Amino acid sequence: MLVLAGPGSGKTMVLTWRVRYLTEVCHIHPGEILVITFTKAAAREMKERYLKLTNSSSTAVSFGTFHAVFFQILKLAYGYGADNILREEQKYQFLREAVYKQKLEPDDEAELIGSIAAEISKVKNDRMNLQEYKAASCDTKSFTAIFNEYDNRLRRSNQIDFDDMLVYCYELLKERKDILGAWQRKFRYILVDEFQDINRLQYDIVRMLAAPENNLFIVGDDDQSIYRFRGAKPEIMLHFEEDYPKAERVLLDMNYRCSQPIVEGACRVIEHNRQRFAKKIQAKNQQGPPILHHQFRDQDEEYACVIDKIKTYREKGGSYRDVAILFRTNTQPRKLVEELISEGIPFRMRDTLPNLYDHWIVKDVFAYLHMARDLKKGMVKRSDFLQVMNRPRRYLGRECLEDELVSWEALLTWYDDKPWVCERIEKLEKDLKMCGMLSPTGALHYIRNIIGYEEYLKEYADYKGRKPEDLLGILDELRELAAGFKSLEEWEARITAIRAELLRQAKEREQNTDGVSLSTMHSSKGLEYRIVFLIDANEGITPHKRVLFEEDMEEERRLFYVAMTRAKELLYVFSVKKLYGKKADRSRFVDELLDE
Ligand SMILES: Nc1ncnc2c1ncn2[C@@H]1O[C@H](COP(=O)(O)OP(=O)(O)OP(=O)(O)O)[C@@H](O)[C@H]1O
């Protein structure tokens, strides 16, 4: 049976009631029932709700994630234990060592390792032939070498990663009909939650397990499939009825969460997708204010409005935890976070916020700023100088600096046979003197345009085959953060305070304190709030600028739809006219939403 469910339609309840129906009405033995979810938290919640519903303290029904279920199968076949599962930190250590061997010298090591890990996962999950695979995170030859090195390391230590669990399970069940038969007899009834996010390998294993009786009960919302980037295949759900022509389809079209204006607005957006089951969702709650859209001059004005509305809500007796601010990418709310801290509004981040000040481009800029400051005392540090001496190119070698502090005379003497290098050294010293007299914003402008750091980044992007705007965007963002500070000292004191506050908040997050939720649209899935702010609803952000194909655009629209349907009562959709100093267009999703 295919249960096609809209947002807020009570999918968990449907699954738990179905299990109760199987056990209490159809008298199926609970041990024959398997309920598969995507996360441990979902499995736990499902089990708890089932126990509550049946008024019992334990059950023989199996509630587990795909990985837990597949690992159980491997455990019995091969005697695997917890020690055989590769831990995340070990995985990154193995990959780091494999990357070092290839001498790739990335600017951002964590980013490279993260994208290689994702690609390895993709190759394994899609059962692709490594010999024919063209890599995206680095050159194909290095990727193949890293993949093999990593895999051999796993074999040598008799370990498997999370992707291997699926691959090995698939291979085992394919080859050993006796083992497959035993599991088919054990789990005669299989229920799958969030089916829209299933990947090919998971589906193939579930199909094998469900045969020959095919007692499959799947629940999902094709409009909420948002994990294509990590291998989810929403088309599997769309073609389920072709794989199982006898399957019945049930539509859960009542939304118990959102008010009618929110449901209607969300439907107007999602109806622009072509790859979907057409359905009409209704709201149980017919009352509610309309969705509020506003286009602000810039983010400063936008964030001031968000903060103002949160404060008003709080003054009227509301809780911070009723409110969520949702955004497309986890780097988006940096400025907002600073504003919330300044205003003393507690918040909880559902995703880690990568610190802009840890980015190599920002480190370069700060090396210049520090040199400009230290030059006044004649104490420019060697480490700062080394960081940027050839950004832009000045034809300098590390050997020209032996002492901890830079001596400009010694540098000029070292290169006295190369007048073109001396010219650049003198220009740098002069530029640093100028920078030292400017405010942080003025100095950033100077470093970027007069020192030539922007030109350097463009050449670098060209050489690395990256989009220059991605790198220049970091400088744009830094300029926004620097605005208003009179001196470097003042700015750095603020950066230190924010770091400390974020650390404190991370600790507090574990305790259940009241706070506004800050979340990416992805991480907001499954959650609900009385009031939701969708910020920066602009082209290039949502939909994201990396969208290339129609399928990507449909995924972006689904993400927007998921975010909208988190709101129970009040939904604000905010856009800006100017983003990082440049003109910005309102998101097409806002146009679709307003097009009544
Ligand atoms: N039959 C029902 N009657 C009244 N309220 C319900 C019913 N089913 C669910 N709800 C309420 O509606 C809200 C949404 O339910 P739930 O979170 O289970 O939906 P969902 O289908 O998982 O949503 P989504 O996929 O959008 O995350 C919850 O507040 C829940 O308590």
UniProtKB/TrEMBL annotation:
Limits of the UvrD-like helicase ATP-binding domain: 1-259
GO BP annotation list: recombinational repair
Reaction equation(s) it catalyzes: Couples ATP hydrolysis with the unwinding of duplex DNA by translocating in the 3'-5' direction; ATP + H2O = ADP + phosphate + H(+)
Annotated UvrD-like helicase C-terminal domain residues: 260-526
Keywords: ATP-binding, DNA-binding, Helicase, Hydrolase, Isomerase, Nucleotide-binding
Amino-acid positions noted as binding ATP in the UniProt annotation, renumbered to this chain: 5-12
InterPro entries, per database record: DExx_box_DNA_helicase_dom_sf, DNA_helicase_UvrD-like_C, DNA_helicase_UvrD/REP, P-loop_NTPase, UvrD-like_ATP-bd
Pfam families the record matches: UvrD-helicase, UvrD_C
Enzyme class, spelled out: isomerase
Coiled-coil intervals, chain numbering: none
GO molecular function per UniProt: 3'-5' DNA helicase activity; ATP binding; DNA binding; hydrolase activity
EC assignment: 5.6.2.4
Phosphoprotein in keyword set: no
UniProt record similarity statement: Belongs to the helicase family. UvrD subfamily.
Name of the protein described by the UniProt record: DNA 3'-5' helicase
